[in-house]
Amino acid sequence: MIKVGSAGSSGLGNYEGVSHCKELGLGCLEVEFTYGVRMGIDEAKRVGELAKKLGIALSVHGPYYINLCSAEKAKVSASRRRILESCERAHYLGAKYVVFHAAFYGKRTKDECYEIVKDEILKLQKMVKHFKWDVMLAPETTGKGSQFGDIDELVKLSNETGCAVCIDFAHLKARNNGKIDYDEVMQKVNKIKHKTGHFSGIEWTEKGERRHLLTKESEIKELFKYLKKYNVSINIVNESPDPFGDAVKMKKAL
Asked: Taking the complete model, does pTM exceed 0.85, yes or no?
């Protein structure tokens, strides 16, 4: 099954955003903590209860300020804290996946960065289990070559730690100068047991992602063609400047 929905509530607030998703016939919503976890537990429970009642699947996007490979211990510690705060709220929201950009390579090799991220994911999973939070960590495929998170790294990470993965198809395109081999990508996606997804139009430079754009209908149809060809079951959250409007376009294309 494929569900589509919105990244954030476009200023409506999460409670109203969930209701709006239902009104538009959408199936999912990603709660955005991108600039900080600014939601109390009571509010998380309130939003989560409504989402459950209306049948809207929730996920959470953790703060942007995360770098598990930082050379500064304080930044790594702060990154862990932000991920765990996101996990706690996700638990009370009833959100299955906690999405985040895991790291930057910095001066480390890709292999060095991978081993550090793997170790941090395993530690975080132990904390999630300790607190009995019913959520899954979902590091995201990233849009710049300077960031940890190409599709091969995350397939391997998922296989070795059991974590989920957020496949951002627009990021994969930006990371590869606008090119994406969907047959190759979908074969890799099907190796990931637990997954969620992002999509939108995207602008890129030689360094990768620059900004998200409105989603062209032709791009939506191309993505869905391959998702169906490979029988991929996934929630796709639209991250364009008009996430509700473009999610509706995606729903119609489905």
From this structure: yes
Given pLDDT bands bounded at 50, 70 and 90, which one contains residue 34? confident
* Cα 183 to chain centroid, rounded: 21
Q: Which amino acid is at 240?
A: S
Considering just the CA atoms, what is the radius of gyration of the chain in Å?
17
Relative to beta strand 28-32, strand 2-7 is parallel
Pick the CATH number of 2-253 from 3.20.20.150, 3.40.50.150, 3.30.450.70, 3.40.50.360: 3.20.20.150
For 196, the enclosing helix (H) or strand (E) is strand 195-199
The residue extents of the domains of the chain are 2-253
Q: Render pLDDT for 145-204 as a digit per residue (tens, 0 to 9).
A: 999 999 999 999 999 999 999 999 999 999 999 899 999 999 999 999 999 999 999 999
Q: Alpha helices of 132-177 — where are they, by DSSP H?
A: 151-161, 169-175
Q: Pairing state of beta strands 195-199 and 234-238?
A: parallel
Distance set, CA 241 to CA 148, 205, 251 (Å): 25, 19, 17
- Write the pLDDT tens digit of every residue in 89-113: 999 999 999 999 999 999 999 999 9
Instruction: State the pLDDT at residue 181.
Output: 96
Amino acid at 43: E
CA distance 62 to 32: 7
Give me the phi and psi of 5, to 5 degrees please.
-165, -165
